[in-house]
Write a structure and sequence with these properties.
Elements lengths: L1 H10 L5 H8 L3 H13 L20 E9 L8 H8 L4 E6 L6 E7 L2 H12 L5 E9 L4 E2 L2 E2 L15
Antiparallel strand pairs: 1-3, 1-4, 2-3, 5-6
């Protein structure tokens, strides 16, 4: 039942306990209690709205930065990740497998601002060996939502003999 409630809230955080109760055929009081417990246990961390910033007047640049790190003895990557996620420019930090250890998503007002962040703040952190910056030029799909659907485009699969 918890997973069912979480899946519904993940797809639409504006669903009321009453609506969830109807959808899952369980008492509203039970839904409210489960949600309260999930919030207290920090399973539900935040309720969000997905915005297509390209359709607004706001100028914003997003970048994904791959970071190679020398882990600290006793704490691994956690201490370096903590130093990175405390910067206001950083929106996400992920521990990764592969060629780099951390993936950092940041936002800035220009490519220059992002580049200065990498050069002056990120690359100067002790234990950071190297970085690779990738600027996000356009978002097509985020969190399972397609941002721009072309109504004229026929999306049917082509069938050939």
């Amino acid at each position: 039942m918890n997973d069912d409630i979480l899946e519904l809230l993940e797809s639409n955080s504006r669903l009321s306990p009453d609506k969830i109760s109807t959808m899952l055929d369980i008492p509203q009081e039970k839904v409210e209690k489960v949600i309260k417990v999930l919030e207290e246990e920090n399973v539900i961390v935040k309720y969000c709205t997905l915005i297509d910033w390209d359709k607004t007047e706001r100028d914003i640049v997003y970048a994904l930065i791959d970071v190679k790190v020398t882990p600290e003895r006793g704490v691994g990557f956690d201490a370096v990740a903590k130093r990175i996620y405390k910067f206001s420019e950083v929106s996400s930090v992920f521990l990764m497998s592969g060629g780099y250890d951390l993936s950092v998503k940041i936002e800035g007002r220009s490519m220059r601002e992002v580049a200065l962040f990498v050069a002056e703040k990120l690359a100067t952190i002790e234990h950071v060996q190297s970085t690779a910056t990738h600027f996000i030029l356009k978002t097509y799909k985020k969190d399972g939502i397609i941002f721009k659907k072309d109504k004229k485009l026929d999306e049917r699969l082509v069938v050939s003999p």
